[in-house]
Design goal:
By secondary structure, the chain is mainly beta. It is 12% helix and 32% strand. The chain contains two helices and nine strands, in the order ααβββββββββ.
Length: 168
């Protein structure tokens, strides 16, 4: 079992039985596990981030109409499905944050997007593993408040890695 497979088994166990799971009691009764894309080595990236000279404050709207404050940290490019795309990394009170929506939104992935927490590396680089892309808790239960992916991080190409759409 790979490290990613072990993580997914552990996450499924948490979702299925833990009191702090985002699933409702009713959802837990029939829960058989989350759905994932197969591990995609090509979307496990060590990338150079072009850090913004001026850290612009950014108010990110949430699914419940609230606002969360972030700073735009920088942007990076990568290739998926043979197309070069660009995403912005944000910095918030809990570290780096990468929300994104891909072209599969609504059919295979959560319509409002998926999240990652990029890991900073030396030399202005980051480790971004799209295999760890996950749905926000509001994808399972509307009682949760989740940041809505900004327009600049809405891709017109598929990112076939990470968690898929939740099916009840």
């Amino acid at each position: 079992m790979t490290e990613l497979e072990a993580f997914r088994v552990e996450k499924d166990a948490f979702f299925g039985s833990h009191p702090q799971s985002p699933l409702t009691r009713e959802q837990k009764q029939d829960f058989k596990g989350l759905h994932y894309f197969p591990e995609n080595e090509a979307l496990r990236l060590e990338i150079k981030v072009d850090e913004f000279q001026v850290k612009e404050k950014f108010e990110m709207q949430t699914s419940t109409g609230d606002i969360q404050l972030y700073e735009k940290f920088g942007k990076f490019q990568f290739i998926t499905e043979g197309i070069e795309v660009e995403l912005t990394i944000y910095q918030g009170p809990h570290g780096f944050f990468l929300p994104f929506v891909d072209s599969l939104a609504g059919s295979e992935t959560y319509p409002a997007g998926r999240y990652l927490e990029p890991e900073p590396l030396p030399g202005g680089r980051f480790f971004v593993d799209f295999n760890n892309a996950y749905n926000p808790y509001c994808a399972y239960n509307e009682m949760w408040s989740c940041p809505i992916t900004p327009a600049e991080n809405r891709l017109k190409v598929a990112v076939r890695a990470g968690e898929k759409l939740f099916h009840t």
